[in-house]
Amino acid sequence: MDRLDWVRWKRNPIFLVLLVTVSAIATGWHLLFESASAQNQPLVQQSLTKQSRRPPRDPRGPGIPGGGQARPQQPPMPRQGVPGGGNLYDDILNKLREQNRIGVRGGNLCAIAPPARLTGSGNAIWHDRPLFIWQGAAVRIELLDSITQEVLWSKNLTPSDTTAAYDREPLQASRRYEWRLYRSLRDPEVILFRILPQQERDRITTQLNQIQVTGATAEQIALQRANYFAENLLWADALQEIYSVQNPSEQLTKLSQEITNYICR
Length: 265
Prior knowledge:
Oligomer: single chain
Mean pLDDT: 78
Largest sheet: 5 strands, mixed
CATH topology of the largest domain: Immunoglobulin-like
Radius of gyration: 46 Å
CATH class of the largest domain: Mainly Beta
Distance between the termini: 133 Å
Number of domains: 2
Helix content: 25-40%
């Protein structure tokens, strides 16, 4: 077959059909061979192939968007006042300001405690050796049994005195007493109070003994106890803890003054 005949043969439709058929058969055999090879591939190799297709891991690690470990939250800064935090100076004063005051008798003398001159706090106290607190000039103080009117204790005062501590035999549980504060020898202000029943006193004593603050000063312990009494509306006992601290700090002195001003204004 010469060159001219070959060219004519390639243009023949039968030749073109045969060429397409042969190409299709060759392509089918090639695809079939690849499919069989993939099915026979070991499972471990397939697993490695899949793993290789995973996106690269962020070297900064997981935790937050963009990588990196989540930052641990910082604990809140403890408030100042007592070891471990807690500004009890402000807490006690805020609790006090939530209480309504009892009106003060005319004049410049204001009996503060016991009981506290606050509505809702009652007239019962836990301390069996109370601290008497007032504002203004007085000349004498007396403590009497409310039933027998026997004078159990008395003390002459100077114009600068604003507290007086009862230092005799402990007062009796459940018994009623009165104290008299004299602006002059013929003009006393009479205040009634009572001591809590013994069972209630014992319960409170147990709870007070559980208040332990490692490394605390006497003032910090007094604040903890005062806060306990305030939460239980035993305000006369809370004030006794605050006003009894020897050598009080400037902050405690300020608290005492603000308490006096609030109750007696």
